[in-house]
Specification:
By secondary structure, the protein is α+β, with helices and mostly antiparallel strands. The chain has helices at 35-45, 76-86, 109-118, 125-140, 147-157, 166-171, 190-200, 232-242, 261-274, 281-285; strands at 10-13, 19-21, 31-32, 46-54, 61-72, 90-93, 98-103, 201-209, 217-228, 246-250, 253-258. The strands form 3 sheets. A 4-stranded antiparallel sheet has the order 4-5-7-6. A 4-stranded antiparallel sheet has the order 8-9-11-10. The chain has a 3-stranded antiparallel sheet with strand order 2-1-3, with no helix packed on it. Helix 1 (35-45) runs parallel beside helix 7 (190-200) and helix 4 (125-140) runs antiparallel to helix 5 (147-157). The relative contact order is 0.15.
């Protein structure tokens, strides 16, 4: 989860691409979150879960699918607008100054699948989503109430996120994880980039000692986005999108990074002025 600082929020009307300050919402009831922005934000902050826990039913286990976005409590307003967008789900305040938007009703989860089928995810999180959809299909058909259906869901869960817990591994030792889908042919749009950067982007002002500068101090502006190394192809596609920057790899992470003034002033700033960063992070951009 990314930390955020206090900021304003921006939206666009359904009839144009012009973004308006949140203070104008009362004047125009047709304001909505851009769906591509929302997909980009889910790519960064969304999570798909399948909980499997012991139960007294005939198969001895219950299955609970869930979608979640978890942020710092300062971004409560943004999560409320996302909740309003989907018209389902609830907000839960945690004990560590965090707040979560959760959809736990299987029927309500169809709002998420309808959105993401129309505006697909770009990161490898799409693989988790596709597996999640397969599990939902089994759930809606009530196959999870049979041993065979339950084992199918366990095999799906084994390929999602961090896989099975130790408890599930101990109870389902013969499970073979299903093949994880691989996302290819990535095409990114500016609205999606704004949403993804709202979730995963970082804006820095680095101040450092420099004997070659007159004041013996240098200043460097930097914009970066980090992801797991499995999304290296996506990170590299940002180089083509912004026409600048580079990708660095460190352990299991990769970073798209722009650290020169022309790249920032000619590419980053104009893009996010036209397609704004939303939520608390917009103050970092400002």
């Amino acid at each position: 989860m990314t930390s955020f600082k206090k900021a304003s929020r921006y939206y666009h009307t359904t009839s144009s691409n012009h973004y308006l300050n949140i203070n104008q919402m009362d004047k125009n009831k047709n304001l909505v979150i851009n769906p591509l922005w929302l997909t980009g934000f889910i790519d960064g902050e969304g999570s798909f879960f399948i909980s499997i826990y012991k139960n007294t039913n005939k198969v001895g286990w219950a299955v609970k699918p869930e979608f979640q976005i978890r942020l710092h409590i300062k971004d409560k307003d943004l999560l409320e607008e996302i909740k309003n967008y989907f018209q389902v789900g609830n907000l839960f305040i945690g004990s560590k100054r965090d707040i979560s938007f959760r959809i736990q009703s299987p029927k309500d989860l169809e709002k998420i699948t309808a959105h993401l089928d129309q505006y697909p995810l770009k990161t490898q999180k799409q693989s988790d989503y596709l597996l999640f959809k397969e599990a939902l299909k089994i759930f809606f058909n009530k196959e999870h109430l049979t041993k065979e259906g339950l084992l199918k869901i366990v095999a799906i869960k084994d390929s999602m996120n961090l896989g099975l817990s130790q408890t599930l591994k101990n109870n389902f030792q013969d499970i073979v994880p299903v093949q994880r889908p691989v996302l290819k042919n990535i095409k990114i749009e500016p609205e999606w980039v704004a949403g993804f950067a709202s979730a995963e982007g970082c804006f820095f002002v680095n101040i450092f000692n420099s004997p070659t500068h007159k004041l013996k101090t240098g200043v460097q502006l930097e914009f970066s986005i980090s992801q797991h190394s499995r999304d290296e192809l996506l990170m590299k596609s940002l180089i083509d999108f912004f026409k600048c920057g580079n990708v660095l790899k460190y352990n299991h992470a990769c970073y798209y990074r722009i650290a020169n003034i022309p790249g920032i002033t000619e590419n980053i700033v104009p893009l996010f002025k036209k397609y704004p960063i939303l939520g608390e992070k917009s103050k970092d951009f400002s």
